[in-house]
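Whether sequence alone determines local backbone shape is best considered at the level of individual chains. The sequence in question and its structure tokens are set out directly beneath this paragraph.

===
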Amino acid sequence: MDPGSPYVEAMVVDSARIVATGTAAALRAACPDAVEQTARGVIVPGFVDSHFYLQRGGIKVVDLFPDREPTIDEFQEAMARTALDADWNGADPPTPAERRQGLIRIQPLLHGLGITTVVDPWATAETVRGYHAAHRDGGLSLRVVAMPYFEGLRDAVTTAEEVIDAIGGLGVGSGFGDDTLSFGALKVYVDGEGKRMQALRERPWPATGEHGVRAISDADLDRIALFCARNGWALGVHAIGGRAMRLALESFARVDAVVPLRDLRFRLIHAYLEPDARVLAEAARLGVLVSSQPAIQWHNGAWLRDSVGADEANPLRSWLDAGVRVALGSDGPYFPFDPLRLMWFTRTRAVRGLETPVGIAQRLTPEEALRAATTDAAFAAFTEHDRGMLSPGRLADWAELTVDPLTASDDDLAGATVARTVAGGRIVYDAA
């Protein structure tokens, strides 16, 4: 998705990075000793999932497939079938060894979907220790961006001051790390879950008469946001409902008056239920991103339409038209996470159980969908200088697809698969 060279015929890779792109003839002449490999499909940048619970997914793999490795289709089917179940069904919590086994086993399955980078929004201390141990021992083939998360904050077990002290004690900020493991945005909750009618709406939920759940006070959100802005941390807020988005942006605006936010990559996570024109404009003004999970709209779209009349839930066209950058993710393993399907969701607005799409005015173009799954997702992960495009100097991370996602029909995209995935110039998945 390099706007200067959207299509190239060949690449040269050396020491895990792309060193040249151009025509095959020109590169053969420039690098006569290079070993040639022929792609088996159309090459696109490796997919970046901006919202995937990687270690929790790994635990589910260990739990559901204790004695064998699942196929990619079996893996996806099992994750969908058990989405509402506990991650782990053992009598005791998973041991560090079981968590490590899960991490090792889930990575090849995600590579089989063309994914080379995952942003994990559940980076508790235990989770980060697991990633650090795996990285130290050479056990990460996926590139991981960890979003620090303090589970007790939304339940008032942990205070804002404790979060600030813990994060401040690290002495680093978002983007710190290396090509394999780094920190992303700090994550907090402003409201609850949509399907449980906890999303904070401007209007009450018809079934409950309540507006939803407020998960953090203005004062605590302001304190955390100001700390982040002053100390090089981006802040990602789980905000599903329109009122939650408005309250988050009002907090961001108060901080912006003290420390400009435009270049800090604060973001709204999910942001799919009824953002109004003021929310769209304010997010654009502040440079706030949206981390979107279109599989939620596919999965819950019929219920959202029937329960609150939300025909245009997950309004990605509105966000883009307002000037807001959108990064695609999945909320996997609890929602579908195949990047080709995610792009298909955004292009078609298809909804599970319905014969006709819902909210077709919010559809994305093929170019917009691919950019959101690669270039803009890499930007949201603080990795845009290394990932998200196939151009000289960037990491040699790519997926070889059976179709060209920019020219394929929606039906052909829905049936497409990954032929091969490469990370750092090394083949990490091969369908042959």
